[in-house]
Amino acid sequence: MADSETTTVTLTPPSEFLSACPKFRILVLGTPESTKQLLFSEVFGVDLEKRLVSDLFEPDHDIEKELDLLGQNSRLAIHASPNFWSGDEKIYDRVLDFLKSRSAAAKPQDQIHCIWYCVASEESRGVGELEKRFFAEGLSQIATPHVPVVLVFTKYEEFTSQVRLEWSRGSAERGLSKVAVSHILRDLAGKRFEQNIAAKWDGLLSAQTPRVCVSSDDADDDDNRSFEQLVLSTLTVLRDRNVKYTFAAAQRHSPSISTQFCADVATSYFEVDTGHARKVHGVDMRDILPDFFAKAIQIFNLRGVDPEASLNDVPSVESTLLARILDSTFGSNQKPLLAESLHRSGTEPGSILLNLSPHERAVLLAQALAGIILFLHTLASDTARRDGGQRAIARALKEEETRDESGGGSTGKKLLLETIEASPIFAECLNLKREVSELIRAAVEAQAERLEGGSDGAHAGRAGPRRIVVEDDSELQEISMSFVNDHRAPGDVVLPCGLTILPLN
Predict the structure, then answer these.
(1) Range of lowest pLDDT (106-115, 339-348, 354-363, 399-408)
(2) Is 427 exposed, middle or buried (0-12, 13-18, 19+ CB in 10 A)?
(3) Got the DSSP string for 41-56?
(4) What pLDDT, on a 0 to 100 scale, did the predictor assign at position 5?
(5) Which domain of life does the UniProt lineage start with (predicted)?
(6) Which of 37, 250, 309, 350 could cysteine-pair with 24, CB 3.0–4.6 Å?
(7) What is the predicted pLDDT for the residue at 126?
(8) Where are the alpha helices (DSSP H) in 301-388?
(9) pLDDT-derived band of residue 262, with 50, 70 and 90 as boundaries?
(10) Bigger pLDDT: 502 or 182?
(11) pLDDT value at residue 277
């Protein structure tokens, strides 16, 4: 490649990374019950008083007023209103006027990107006339852009508890194992939910409208999976690439989703026209690594870490943090090369990097990017640390360095490094963007599972969607996320309407 061509390569500044849509804006329609508080906490990582959340769903609440998140998530805006079960025409008209107004907003961050329509999992609850009107006519009256809806069945644990209670009264459990009882109840609850609750909505909703059951008993691992499914379902219905990225940053439930989006960003540092993976020409690794780190921090959006403050500190604090993260990723034999990658140009005379082949540079870059993602993924997966902000990062780094000093640090990332080094995409790559993204994601997930072992499986073990597909020739680079039913657990029951029923204990 000629010099005139290599000088044209530039990196988008981290401060502009999510500038196309800096905030994800959601409308939640429901009733004042406790599940909403847990929804906001589990999905978006915001801890709010129960009364504050309940007030959002009172008839006199101002739908235009955002929920005060107390500075806990700068990537999120929540609006709320009662749903239409009560039949109140004023509420109905107010919601439609609000949606029309927001759809006409000039800035993408001021538009409503998704609606969660929440209904209780109660057999006695029908579908109200205004609800029928809303799904049949109301949504079509809203001006473009498209506003997708996810139907959220709340209080699912109360429904399954009732099924359990009735079955226990009428049948003898003596002699049956816990596993057998669980399977029986799962089947009974699934069929009963389909017949008495889900079937009421089947003819009203389009096939593209996801249905998700959510429980408010967060002690159950299946309940954690239900929140994972809600996150994935929301991501599935979003069409715009920029909005997808903002939602990936706004959600804090799934480190795996953050990892996938970071892996997609990582592909921008590789050439796309060589037939194999090569570092992009015209940009040094010393520029790529801090650029990627600043963007990855925004995607993971850890609680207690201000992304804007992090961006301002890139030349000082962040560069030191980056060096420590990478130092804990590579073995001692690679650390001189790593130091040069952070501080010297790859074209500088006397640089070790000059002795590397393009293949070796690409492998080193992919390993370094994966190491950054792995550190953030592990931190986000640790429930004891993910809310601790900068102090949690410092403690995690100290532990990494302690393991390294004792001889466990370099071997701890061995799987990550070897997975990338052994990949054939650096010699032959048929769909570069997709294959580079998948390689980095798979390496991080495999290493994270090994490091985390059996701890906090709700967030780490259930990795969510298994691939991101980026159409390189699309202006929007549409990211096609596999729907949650493609990755259901062995015990899940999928109803004909598309609803996934979670197994009981």
Answers:
(1) 399-408
(2) exposed
(3) HHHH-----HHHHHGG
(4) 37
(5) Eukaryota
(6) 250
(7) 93
(8) 307-312, 319-327, 335-343, 358-381
(9) very high
(10) 182
(11) 76
pTM of structure: 0.83
Give φ, ψ of 414 to 5 degrees.
-60, -45
Range 190-226 burial, b when 16+ CB lie within 10 A, else e: bebbbeebbeebeeebeeebbbbbbbbeeebebbbbb
Residue 416: pLDDT over 60? yes
Distance from C-alpha of 4 to C-alpha of 299, rounded to nearest angstrom: 33
> What's the count of helices (H) and strands (E) in the chain, helices before strands?
20, 9
Has residue 366 got a pLDDT over 70?
yes
Amino acid letter, residue 342: L
| Whether 88 contacts 56, CB under 8 Å | no
**Fold designation for 24-251+495-501:** Rossmann fold (3.40.50)
Please give the Cα distance from 50 to 440 (Å, whole number). Answer: 40
> d(Cα 345, Cα 387) in Å, to the nearest integer?
37
270, burial (CB in 10 Å: exposed 0-12, middle 13-18, buried 19+): buried
* CB distance 263 to 441 below 8 Å: yes
CA dihedral 97, 102, 104, 107 (to 10 degrees): 170
Tokens coding 337 = 């090369």
State both tokens at 154: 């709340």
Q: Could you count the other beta carbons within 10 Å of the beta carbon of residue 278?
A: 20
How many other CB atoms are there within 10 angstroms of residue 286's CB atom?
Answer: 18
At 126, list the tokens. Answer: 């029908």
Q: Which residues, 6+ apart, have CB-to-CB distance to 351 below 8 Å?
A: 340, 344, 345
Length of the chain: 505
Mean pLDDT confidence for 359-375? 94
Average pLDDT over the chain, rounded to an integer: 80
Torsion angle of the four alpha carbons 269, 274, 277, 283, in this order, in degrees rounded to the nearest 10:
-30
Collapsed DSSP state (helix, strand, coil) of residue 486: helix
Structure tokens at 419: 């997975």
CB 286 within 8 A of CB 345: yes
Cβ-based neighbours of 398, under 8 Å, separated by 6 or more: none
CA separation for the pair 224, 459 (Å, rounded) = 8
CA-based radius of gyration for the chain: 24
Cβ contacts of 128 within 8 Å, gap of 6 or more: 84, 85, 86, 87
Quote the pLDDT of residue 273. Answer: 65
pLDDT digits (tens, 9 = 90+) for 44-79: 999 999 889 989 999 999 999 999 999 999 999 999
Q: Angle, to 10 degrees, between the axis of helix 255-266 and the axis of helix 221-237?
A: 40
Segments making up each domain of the chain, as ranges? 24-251+495-501, 255-463
